[in-house]
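Appendix B, example 12.
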Amino acid sequence: MTQSINGKVVVVTGASSGIGRAIAQLFAAQGAQLVLVARSVDRLNKIAGEIGGNPLTITIDLAKPADVERMIAETIGHFGRVDVLMANAGVYISENLSEGDPDAWDNMIAVNVNSVFRSVRCVLPLMISQKSGDIIVTSSIAGHQAMRAEPVYSATKHALQAFVHGVRRQIAPHNIRIGSIAPGTVLNELWGVTDPAEVDRRVRLREGLRSEDVAEACLWMLTRPPNVTIRDLVMLPQNQDI
């Protein structure tokens, strides 16, 4: 029997744009109690007003370990539990390595990798005590196949894949599921596509995914019967050549 996220406390990082925003909109419509996390106060307030339901908004910088801990502490203080962690926030860099900025890499690693490790570490004691919980990590096709134009970004996503696979074995006995979703090109701000007409054009050509496509796939993962873990979900635009 499929499950529902109605009434569940769901933490969504990177909730102010792209995939995170689409997740917030879709999950709100499904009755979830949302915790929306991002750096921009204005953007968070805007999406919170749009979706309704009185979500908790938390403005933090995920590159800062203390902020990650505060995110979970404030969630527990407000709701008393965490049912779902959507570890979605990420930074994207495409470059030739010889011309790259190592300081920018450090920030990308802090957000893409370290903040995910720390977020999961923070929620696990509570989920273990609850004997339930779901974690979905936003990875990328670059986590399955290193991309020529984005070697450091690919490395961060490969790290997430290894993390998810290792953690899954540790937490399964506690009725906690963890999985990764790995999309190809998603037509949103992270990939530099913001014009709705351009999004529509590239979708018609089957060259990209909408953020909403990824959000719907995440909802599908979460609503599988309790005995079913979707360890990895890879989704591509039909015409993406990798």
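The two ends are 36 Å apart (CA to CA). The chain has seven helices and seven strands.
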